[in-house]
Write a structure and sequence with these properties.
Largest interface: A-B, 59 and 56 residues
Distance between the termini of chain B: 57 Å
Strand order of the largest sheet of chain A: 1-2-3-4-5-6-7-8
Number of strands of chain A: 16
Largest sheet of chain B: 8 strands, antiparallel
CATH topology of the largest domain in chain A: Glycoprotein, Type 4 Pilin
CATH topology of one domain in chain B: Rossmann fold
Number of helices of chain A: 1
Number of helices of chain B: 20
Oligomer: heterodimer
Largest sheet of chain A: 8 strands, antiparallel, barrel
Strand order of the largest sheet of chain B: 14-13-10-11-12-15-22-20
Helix content of chain A: under 10%
CATH architecture of one domain in chain B: 3-Layer(aba) Sandwich
Strand content of chain B: 15-25%
CATH class of one domain in chain B: Alpha Beta
CATH architecture of the largest domain in chain A: 2-Layer Sandwich
Number of domains of chain A: 2
CATH class of the largest domain in chain A: Alpha Beta
Structural class of chain B: alpha+beta
Helix content of chain B: 25-40%
Order of helices and strands of chain A: EEEEEEEEHEEEEEEEE
Strand content of chain A: over 45%
Amino acid sequence: MHHAFKLGEAEYELELSRGSAGYRLHFDGATVAVDLAAVPGDGTVLITHGVSEPVFIATRGDAVFVHLDGAAYQLAYEHPLDRLAQQSQGAAADAVRAPMPGSVISVLVQAGQTVTRGETLLVMESMKMETTITAPRDGVIEAVHFATGQTFDRDALLLNLQLEKST
Amino acid sequence: MNSTPAITADLAARVAQWPFRSVLIANRGEIALRILRTVQKLGLEGIVVYHQADRAAPAVRAADRAIEITGSTPVAAYLDAAQILAAAKTSGAGAIHPGYGFLSENAGFARAVADAGLAFVGPTPQQIELMGDKVRARAFVEQGGFPVAPSAIEDDDPKTFVERARHVSLPLLIKPAAGGGGKGMRIVRDLAVLEAEIERARSEGQRYFGDGRLYVERYIENPRHIEVQVLGDAHGNVVHLFERECSVQRRFQKIVEETPSPALTAELRARICETAAGIARAAGYRNAGTVEFIFGQEGEFYFLEMNTRLQVEHPVTEEITGKDLVFEQLRVAAGEALGYSQNDIVASGHAIEFRVYAEDPARGYTPTTGPVLMLREATGPGVRVDSGIAQGQDVTAAFDPMLAKLIVFGRDRSEAIARADKALAETVLLGCQTNIAFLRRLLNHPAFVAGQVHTGFLDAHPEIAAEPALDQNKLQRLLAAAALSVRPLRDAADAVPAMHAAIGGWRN
């Protein structure tokens, strides 16, 4: 299996194939007959196990937004190649991302600078509160992607640390 | 209940006598659209100002005229009094409605509007100044014989401060005089540590606000926030329109407001509402206003502050009284007398407002952003949506994260709650995460259903904000919906005909 979706922090591998009518979802050891069908008006129904229910779906890039059973969910499609690349690099600790949308108040480091774990890298402002962004590990700053006064969305890449040299 | 006035020939004739024919709305979002609705219904011209970030907003489309304003940030544009006055001049506006927030409680702006010969849809500048200064407002209310929390203010006589603080009954709350946002506050439950805590609070006040002056007041445990809607005209008439309970808060911001309050008996309701009307009367108050109280578990209540503007949560009052508060504000600004007395104001039923925020409750209520890819508003009996967003618009971090308000009305509280749950479930907003699912968990929580809430309710019940685990069946359906909507997965499936797929390795 090499297709996957992220939902919250969890990642789910799955596969889709054609069925005699509609499709089949292969997930977690089970195969389920599934399909989407348009209904008169502007609605869509999701059919699973032969049961139909209304669903609202919107996509944007790799993000899939689903309103099902009275609540909205955001899923992210993960490209097989990206997942491969991620697995080989294990890069999570090298990227410093924004915990929430906001703007940069000050940047305390520059590319090439050596930092220690916990050191303040950048101060941001969000909801009229200041938040400090600290180094996730010891390392060397590879790049700073935002300057003072610039705004960013949640999960924006603020800074990069140079890749760890393998020991 | 439909609170917008029917336009009778009589009303049209009265409105024709008003000193203004057009109203400029110096605000944005849902409230700009809400005010516009009444302005246009009355046959007046509705003008809005807008920053470029709001160009796709419903209010801009609905306005008879929309004038772009600029600023170093989008918020700065809406705070730029000179630019807004210039827009009023170019457009020939006869009145300015400030909405809430931004310039609504800025006495200098109110004065400048009057100096420009326009009607300000709000109170007098002096009333804004009085109620805007928390220490002055508190002293004014106390002098009138109305209840304020027992306190000792250092500035009154610094030498006797500690002694006076000892005589305020326990528990005590020490607050920096220059403070705000909960910083530097300390609770004292034992007089033995009072002096040490005062010194600590002083050094914190010095550090946070550059000002070490303090005051001490009686600390109310797990209080409710109850406020009263008042309405006054320029002829000395003041009435109240009952209370609103706004105890469900996060980070000192309201999330759910309702009326009547589940905490009040008829006797307490009469007392708190009369107190609010009395305070407004003492101030000769003109315009719609809100007197906020802190309400203790023993039924004791104290003046907190007065907001001299239309409140975010005004719709619940409109739903139970049938009064259109924006219409009343415009009438008063036009110089009309209220024309009715307290006994003419009758409330029926129960109304609850839910604020739809672009935020992630499970991550400390941090704001979220994104495009509004799909929007379906709830409809149905007793359902009202005051919204400031449209499909295709972007939710950005530039403004307050409130997107819309869902207001439900029912014959009683349980009918209102049931209608709210259904309406929230039917509200579809895709592309930007919202707190809608959280609101449903909140309104189904046993303590909320029982009406037993206080301002620390959400902190005491962190499970309401937490993202619940998905059951396997729901997960399967979500993944099916997502997989069927993604091109690479569909293409991969379609590339292998069903028969071959059946021979492949997918049987279990």
